[in-house]
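Data card: per-record layout.
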Amino acid sequence: MASETDIITAVIQLVVSFLLLIRAVITFLTSRLQHCQCCECRHRELELEEELDKERSAAATAAQEAMAMIARLQKEKASLQMEARQYRITAEQKHFYDLQVISFLKEMVTKLQKDNFSHQQLSFSLSNAQDEEQRLLAKVCLSA
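The structure for this 144-residue chain is written out next.
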């Protein structure tokens, strides 16, 4: 895909080529005008001057259109750059937020694992105490 710079360069090259062609036509028409010095050539001279004016007008229009296109492309480029910056900032903020969430979740998992381990130890100790109590109760009952 061609970049905007490539497109602008191509447009400028086309305009320059077109202007060089117009320049050659103008030079040709001017030289033809210079050769028409007799009365019979006056009518042809007027036609050539009219054609020359049209060519000048076409060249000016082409240059204006090229400049308008370049300005539009530059505006679009600036807009796309702004949008890209905004997306980058949003992505960076989301990445930072995601890192914070991951860190928080890791802390929660660690805490839950510690709490679960403590709960298991407490359950084990309570179970052992109940077993010991039942054994003692059984001994007391047997000895009585």
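Known properties of this structure: The mean pLDDT is 81. The CA atoms of residues 28 and 116 lie 96 Å apart.

See the next section for split statistics.
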